[in-house]
């Protein structure tokens, strides 16, 4: 597994189903609108915000352009700090490493910090196959897990659920996974949070192994960083005897001082806060304090493929803030499930094809088209990823990947149009059949296209005929002509 949901249809089909769900659209509009407003308020407080975006982009770009050196340095400093570093080429290798560590400690369960990369590799499912239960401790991730659901947002995985739905999930599912919800559970946010806290507390205190990702990995000091809002991450990072951190290789930054601008950009862009309530940093093992065995799994899983793409590599700057999702008119109307991936929205529309490649899966090939190219995503991206430009480049890659063989209807239509428009005589000859063509299209054209568009009646006279009639039969430059020169 590598980030896409097995069996999901291509984006147009999935989006059509999502658009028919009025409750989903209401939930999304309310949630994204609230987050947008909070972000705009705290960003407006920073006078040098645009300069800060440039600094953030430069920090990530500098590390990516020297990635091999920085990763070797990170391994050295982590090892010097007492951590064990593992390298994983893909999801299968990463999952096997985590499972082997858990088995070595006879752990039947692990507690997890919210982590996109572990969702990307399908770690929970892989551990379940080995008889190991992986418990999500982030509130939204817990809701998704208990509801046997799929995440639909990078920051707020349960954004598609409202309070009443969450109450029902807790009431009906918590008991089977541990401490049940109180009998008098209501849908008040504070009450729901308290129920989750009681449910998770016994898991925190019992677990031998914790699993995390990392927002940043500092090569200079061998330090990993996790930012969060609830404190569950702090519990997972400090209470278990063993900590395993799965980290995408693009998370590395060069120097400790590079962390400063990132910690100003990330919370404002994600939760609309000036700083994260919990910022945890750890550097290997500290005797008598926290986990006494620390493992770091450095994961590729398509990232070097993305790095080789001169246009698309900028997507590896992403700090998973989700600001692009919250401003995207497509995401707001379709939700995250329509993208068929743990990375939804504009960033998912470019990141999934970059990690997996195009030309072999219709669902992935559909993602670069899941955009209106309005540019709002670039305007809010804290590290200035030009998502619209990458989308256009990937659309070209999708088209190129399907050249040869039997052309798709769209490709055949474009080739036909190119042939006709390539010679004025051909165009002139076919113009007389415009009316017939319009009538044929109304009756036999693709329903998905014709049903949403009005085809006008063909004019009684073509532009070419009008020009010749009103200009006395003269074409450009005052030369007498019949308008059929090639």
TrEMBL record:
Transmembrane segments: none annotated. GO terms for biological process: lactate metabolic process. Keywords: 4Fe-4S, Electron transport, Iron, Iron-sulfur, Metal-binding, Repeat, Transport. SUPFAM superfamilies: 4Fe-4S ferredoxins, NagB/RpiA/CoA transferase-like. Residues 315-385 form the 4Fe-4S ferredoxin-type domain. GO terms for molecular function: 4 iron, 4 sulfur cluster binding; metal ion binding. Residues 73-299 form the LUD domain. It comes from the Bacteria. This is L-lactate dehydrogenase complex protein LldF.
């Amino acid at each position: 597994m590598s980030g896409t949901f097995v069996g999901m249809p291509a984006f147009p089909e999935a989006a059509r189903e999502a658009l028919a769900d009025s409750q989903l659209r209401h939930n999304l509009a309310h949630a994204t609108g609230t987050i947008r407003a909070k972000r705009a308020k705290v960003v407006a407080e920073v006078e040098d915000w645009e300069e800060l975006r440039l600094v953030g982009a430069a920090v990530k770009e500098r590390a990516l352009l020297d990635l091999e050196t920085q990763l070797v340095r990170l391994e050295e400093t982590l090892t010097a700090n007492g951590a064990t570093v593992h390298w994983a080429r893909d999801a299968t290798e990463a999952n096997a490493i985590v499972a082997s560590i858990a088995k070595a400690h006879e752990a039947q369960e692990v507690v997890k910090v919210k982590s996109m990369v572990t969702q990307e590799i399908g770690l929970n499912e892989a551990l379940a196959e080995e008889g190991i239960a992986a418990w999500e401790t982030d509130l939204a991730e817990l809701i998704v897990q208990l509801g046997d659901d799929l995440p639909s947002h990078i920051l707020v995985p349960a954004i598609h659920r409202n309070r009443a739905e969450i109450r029902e999930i807790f009431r009906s599912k918590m008991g089977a996974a541990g401490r049940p919800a109180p009998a008098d559970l209501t849908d008040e946010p504070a009450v729901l949070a308290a129920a989750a806290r009681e449910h998770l507390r016994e898991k925190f205190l019992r677990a031998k192994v914790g699993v995390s990702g990392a927002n940043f990995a500092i090569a200079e000091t061998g330090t990993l960083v996790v930012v969060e809002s609830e404190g569950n991450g702090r519990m997972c990072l400090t209470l278990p005897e063993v900590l395993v951190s799965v980290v995408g290789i693009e998370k590395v930054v060069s120097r400790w001082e590079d962390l400063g601008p990132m910690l100003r950009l990330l919370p404002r862009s994600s939760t609309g806060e000036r700083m994260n309530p919990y910022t945890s940093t750890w550097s290997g093992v500290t005797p008598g304090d926290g986990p006494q065995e620390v493992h770091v799994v450095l994961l590729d899983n398509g990232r070097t493929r993305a790095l080789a793409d001169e246009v698309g590599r900028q997507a590896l700057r992403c700090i998973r803030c989700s600001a692009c999702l919250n401003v995207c008119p497509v995401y707001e109307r379709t939700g995250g499930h329509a993208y068929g991936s743990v990375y939804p929205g504009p960033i998912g529309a470019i990141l999934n094809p970059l990690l997996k490649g195009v030309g072999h899966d219709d669902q992935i090939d559909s993602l670069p088209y899941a955009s209106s190219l309005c540019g709002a995503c670039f305007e809010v991206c804290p590290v200035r990823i030009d998502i619209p430009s990458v989308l256009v480049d990937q659309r070209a890659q999708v088209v190129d990947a399907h050249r040869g063989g039997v052309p798709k209807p769209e490709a055949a239509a474009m080739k036909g149009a190119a042939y006709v428009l390539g010679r004025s005589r051909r165009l002139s000859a076919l113009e007389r059949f415009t009316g017939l063509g319009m009538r044929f299209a109304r009756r036999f054209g693709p329903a998905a296209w014709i049903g949403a568009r009005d085809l006008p009646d063909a004019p009684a006279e073509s532009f070419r005929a009008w020009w010749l009639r009103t200009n006395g039969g003269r074409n450009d430059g005052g030369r007498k002509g019949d308008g059929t020169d090639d």
